[in-house]
Amino acid sequence: MRSRRLLLSALVVLTASASACRKSQAQGTASAADCILMEDGWGQDGSVPVTVDVVAEGLEVPWGVAFLPGGDGDALITERPGRVRLLRGGQLQPGAVATLPLAANGEGGLLGIAAHPDFATNRWFYLYVTTEADGKAQNRVERWTLSPDGTSATFERVIFGNIPSAKYHDGGRLRFGPDGMLYVGTGDSRDPDLSQDVKSPAGKLLRLTPDGAVPQDNPFPNSPAFLLGVRNTQGFDWKDPATLYLTDHGPSGETMRFGHDEVNVVKAGDNLGWPGIYSCETQGGRITPSLTFDDAAPPGGAAVYTGTAIPEWKGSLLVGTLKSQHLHRVEFDAREPRRVAKHEVYLRNTWGRLRDVLMGPDGHLYVTTSNCDGRGECGPRKDLLLRVRR
């Protein structure tokens, strides 16, 4: 019965997709009603010359980076097999700050990391971890305390658990927002219907207090959900305090659909529509992406460029991609906030798979590679932390 329902859903989706995408191609704009669909490739090469420095090497699937306050560029880096590493004085320290037991397979493991806004005082940082509870794998958010010398860390507690886990679609990105709340990107754990279930934390962008409670001003009463209808986000950042850019993975065969990763402009309470719509489809009460690609990228981390070293990038969204192996810059129209004014490709096929993307305290963009995750070419230098500058 379920397979019949999925097949009927696929036929409806494919019909709607053809109509919506024709509209996108004709208008070439992006708004709540239409979007830019790239049917062939990723776009033109970037016009701004950039330089890439290797900051650290010898990493194994560095999934998340958290720069620490103090102005010296120290950072904690998660490695998906379960290690937290310390970057100090520009040098990757040999030992692990912490090693976590995991119930990991596929895309799970030790994923995102975020430092508390008052880290200088409390030394707290947060981890998104795939672990086991009651004999079943789950994702959860843990809080840890970094030692005064930065060389070790102590588990404090689980602040939010019972996030469904699967071999694929585990989400994992953590970021503190400008409101001081912790935002958690989750995947649908290969059960697309969970993305529309406000009672499930799967397929969402969650918003929590630093202690893991549900903020009273969340858009859905008594729910940690900030956004619904997400398939598998690994990247989001803030345009302004009320508006986020969020990337999402398109389908890889569900209901006969493939590709169409997304760049979205969203606000509290929005519904990205998965699994009911995808690509450039439109539907009442659902968000149509601003930019989508026929082929699977798929997107990793994302960051708004706030530095001055590359003034042409100011305010743009920079997105790392995995399979397509490039850094994508998206510039939005100042008058039409959901509309893409320009997008272009950097680092095309030069550094391999790119995972996390974030701004550093020095005003430069930082990117991690993910070539040792079983899907890339893991060379003798293993995975890298890169700095992108003029």
Automatic annotation (TrEMBL):
Residues 59-375 form the Glucose/Sorbosone dehydrogenase domain. It comes from the Bacteria. Pfam families: GSDH (PF07995). Residues 1-20 form the signal peptide. The keyword Metal-binding does not apply. Keywords: Signal. InterPro entries: 6-blade_b-propeller_TolB-like, Glc/Sorbosone_DH, Quinoprot_gluc/sorb_DH_b-prop. The keyword Signal applies. Coiled coil: none annotated. This is PQQ-dependent sugar dehydrogenase. It comes from Corallococcus exercitus.
